[in-house]
Amino acid sequence: MARFEFRLPDIGEGIAEAEVVAWHVRPGDRVTEDQPVADMMTDKATVEMESPVTGTVVEIAGEVGDMIAIGATLLVIETEAAEGDAPTAPTATPTAIPEPVLEAHAEQEPPQAPTPYIPAPHPDATAIAVPQPSAQSLASPAVRARARDLGIDLAQVKARDGGRIRHADLDAYLTYHGHQGYSAAAPARADETIRVVGLRRRIAENMAASKRHIPHFSYVEEIDVTALEAMRGDLNAHRGNRPKLTLLPLLIVAICKALPEFPMINARYDDEAGVVTRHGAVHLGMATQTDAGLMVPVIRDAQAKNIWQLASEIVRLADAARSGTASSHDLSGSTLTITSLGPLGGVATTPVINRPEVAIIGPNRIIERPVFRGDEVVRAKLMNLSISCDHRVVDGWDAASFVQAVKVLLETPVLLFAD
Questions:
Q1: 395 a catalytic residue
Q2: pTM of the complete model
Q3: Which of 165, 244, 251, 394 has minimal CB crowding within 10 Å?
């Protein structure tokens, strides 16, 4: 018998340590060569570690959420080989999982991640039976788990878009049906203590750093998108095999057309070096909500793409972020970010800047309301557009002027296609 120490290999350039985000084995477990044993997260990627030998796990280094230094022992495996015959640890290959920050859209069901080790319940725990959601209803694992906790049968929940059931649909169900899923005698849910690890920890750290270092200010303007929405409907009616247009590609075109006059918006600020870089190309971060958390894939050279190319790239990047297949190139280098709550809408938002960028733009829900046009009252589709800026770099006048320039383009949509 021999003890093989599996040391954490170098899993990324310049990485000194990595976080344990999941254990797939425990002491006493039998493992085979190439079997996944742990998931480790760096600043840029999540890496699946595989056992280089066959044997029995004797020790593991810490618990989920602990940081392990490169070169430190990750786990000890007892093998049947003689002392000195155990192989050396291989170099791990990162699996592209994005660094987080914020949200967007896509309707593809994300694949199931490998099931991490979960301790057995305490012997004193009492099981509470709740209705199981219908397997025929389309919903993500997170929505299904929440429905189970609430005692809601997903077969009774209507998806507002006719497709996959979302958290907002559960909220709507509770609003109109109360807590009918609970029995009158059902006990309250037990308190939960959840350690903040992995992607959620990265989000927390990034958001805290952004708010700690950046003096934010926000500006909100109302935009009449009646003509824009009519044009979008016409374009979709004649799109052929091209992807269906949402508002987002048209908004991106307006942003890219307005930015050359406001270069301080499309910039990054290295506050440690005291240097602001104003970028010529628009590498637009698209904050995307996934089951794992908020991620920001990047539309490269957005200013060089037409609306159909933007629509295709939005779908590609959102799908890649949700499925965990986005490359590191897709997930880095943004110069400006746009974030939207999508179907949840909202009257106005004050989004947090994606540091080291200096601005973030947030379109809000389109609402149909009566407005005055001359002496007449007409129906109009109105949308608030929010922007948050770094006041160290962007003055309030510049932010407001930029939004006003975008407003002109959106309210006169033929200008979007004018040179």
A1: yes
A2: 0.64
A3: 244
